[in-house]
Design goal:
With about 425 residues, the chain is mainly β. The protein folds into two domains: about 280 residues, no CATH class; about 150 residues, Jelly Rolls (Sandwich), CATH 2.60.120. It is built from two helices and 34 strands. The strands form five sheets. It has a 17-stranded mixed sheet that branches. Strands 24, 26, 27, 29, 32 and 34 form a six-stranded antiparallel sheet that branches. Strands 25-28-33-30-31 form a five-stranded antiparallel sheet, with no helix packed on it. The longest helix has 7 residues. The two termini are about 50 Å apart.
Length: about 425
């Protein structure tokens, strides 16, 4: 099933798959495991410096600010003008750290089983916890939550280390994988990963324990089960909070945070200074993307031709991925379309942004109307930009839907002589 190992050190032009180690990867000396010195992985955590200034956006209109005292499972405590304030977590939408450093791309990226990721400078593993060194201190992650590790290569895409070999992974994986070579010419070695040290990675191959030089390895991919965090059919994420870091993006159900330490779900520990944003609204939202409307009426400008099955499907609302000048996924709706969704229980607000779906290639104009139980709450006319203009940022929609039962969205023609333009609703969601 696997290609035999050729007696050569040259890597193939494309990705390959091996059960044996290429020449030059093993060395004869025994692996000398040692604690990495200060400034490397197991170095002491960098202490917090200045107090962390925060801006807190609440679920009801309004915001407050102060410096972080502590966050536990129930309350956020801040110091505001010398007075300690307690803000219940269930009233918080968003916490943003003011003046957070942007951070340079790390030399290694750790991807977790739920799709989260963290950048660092180096890592070590010789047991149950992966230790990650970062400019702001040390992080610890249970190895069972780690899906892959990618060391940044000179020929990697700037924002996605390991992207080339990750996209080439086979659909079915029967063991851990060691990735050797380069981003452009890499091979997968089937083995069992045992430890990661400062000089070598120890693997078990055909019942033989072998140390492999770190300089030959560009990535590790562990054999793991399906992610524990799944998105339900309603579009609501089962994880509560989106956690943005300096060099990372995570999801968590439980958060404790002091200026010194961030603890996620009781077992992922990071420096407190790493936090950029905590977004509770991300876990309290029901996305309209992929959620079937309760009622849908579509009547394109060419009228009766809409009954042709292929055209009817084309003109119906459809989900689109990020791209074409848009950073997030969305829903494209063409005129004339009326869609009605049943609002989730305890829905509070409907948020989205709208823009011509074709970006700089769009022509014509359309009108967008949003209703709650047939009561109009938003109306805006969108004129497509010219071919020479860049895609616009989008017009925000942020309307109160509390107490409502149905949310209606209509995209209509502006005039009978104008075929209109498709409208992209970016991140359309109802926040609970």
């Amino acid at each position: 099933m696997r290609t035999p190992f050729p007696a050569t050190i040259a890597l193939p032009a494309g990705p390959g798959f091996r059960r044996s180690l290429p020449w030059g990867l093993s060395f004869r000396c025994r692996l000398m495991w040692a604690v990495v010195s200060i400034g490397s992985v197991t170095g002491g955590m960098v202490g917090a410096g200045e107090p962390l200034s925060l801006r807190i956006e609440k679920t009801e209109a309004g915001a407050t600010s102060g410096t972080l005292v502590a966050l536990d499972g129930a309350d956020l405590r801040i110091d505001s003008a010398g007075q300690e304030l307690v803000v219940p977590i269930d009233t918080v939408r968003l916490v943003e750290r003011e003046g957070a450093p942007s951070g340079a791309a790390g030399r290694v990226r750790v991807a977790l089983v739920d799709g989260s990721w963290i950048d660092g400078e180096d890592l070590a593993w010789d047991g149950t916890v992966v230790t990650l060194s970062r400019p702001d201190g040390r992080g610890e992650i249970p190895v069972g939550k780690v899906r892959s590790v990618a060391w940044r290569q000179a020929d990697d895409a700037a924002q996605s280390p390991g992207g080339a070999w990750l996209s080439a992974l086979p659909e079915t994986i029967e063991s851990d994988l060691l990735v050797v070579g380069s981003a452009a010419a890499h091979e997968f070695v089937e083995c069992a990963i045992k430890s990661v040290g400062p000089e070598s990675i120890t693997v078990v191959l055909d019942e033989e324990t072998i140390p492999v030089k770190r300089s030959k390895v560009i990535g590790i991919h562990w054999l793991r089960g399906d992610p524990a965090t799944q998105r339900g059919g309603s579009g609501k994420s089962s994880a509560s909070v989106a956690v943005d870091l300096v060099g990372g993006s995570l999801r968590a159900r439980q958060i404790t945070w002091t200026p010194e330490t961030l603890l996620l779900d009781g077992d992922i520990s990071l420096p407190g200074d790493a936090v950029v944003r905590l977004d509770w609204a991300a876990g309290r939202t029901v996305s309209l993307i992929g959620l079937a409307p309760e009622k849908l009426e579509v009547e394109p400008w060419f009228g009766g031709l809409a009954r042709v099955p292929g055209l009817a499907t084309y003109f119906a609302p459809r989900a689109v991925a990020a791209g074409d000048g848009f950073a997030r996924p969305g829903l494209v709706i063409r005129p004339r379309t009326q869609a009605v969704w049943r609002l989730p229980p305890e829905g509070r607000r409907f948020r989205a942004s709208i823009a011509p779906a074709g970006g700089g290639r769009a022509v014509g104009g359309s009108e967008v109307v949003v209703t709650v139980d047939d009561r109009e709450v938003f109306r805006h006319r969108i004129e497509a930009v010219s071919a020479e203009s860049p895609a616009p940022e989008g017009i925000p929609i942020d309307v109160d839907v509390a107490g409502g039962r149905r949310l209606g969205v209509t995209v209509d023609f502006v005039s009978a002589s104008d075929s209109g333009c498709p409208i992209r609703f970016t991140s359309p969601a109802v926040e609970q």
